[in-house]
Amino acid sequence: xQMPERDSVxxxxxxxxxxxxxxxxxxxxxxxxxxxxxxINMTRxxxxxxxxxxxxxxxxxxxxxxxxxxxSLNRRNTMYSKVSALNSELNLTExxxxxxxxxxxxxxxxxxxxxxxxxxxxxxxxxxxxxxxIEIQTDDVVNIPQQDESILGKVxxxxxxxxxxxxx
Length: 168
Prior knowledge:
The chain is about 50% helix and about 5% strand. The protein has three helices and two strands. The termini are far apart. The model has no long low-confidence stretch (mean pLDDT about 80).
């Protein structure tokens, strides 16, 4: 009995069970004389070299596509992590800004300014004895007499009046 090769393909002949009489395969010797036994045909098919190359090419293409998908998902997750870290840093910075604004407002109160003026600058509140009032008379009008013009001023005034006369 001959051993089948590795690249051989076996198929089952279902014609034995049909109503038509089965053809006797040429490749197999008869195992028995019983007519009810199914017959198995063995045909040898070889893999084509082009199909192996196609399978390798498609597999490589699938691996490349899978790699690009994994790489893009990794990049997306990295960017999401960076955005999350920057958002948390932004929240901390905004909280620090609110704290500093409230501290600034508390330092700008009138009481704090008064304490700073007294303690640091050495200023004191004024006493009522230090206040002096000055009375101003609003009814008085100051008149400034006109001064006599020089000869050049009189000549200039004459020319100005002439120009106004001719302009209309």
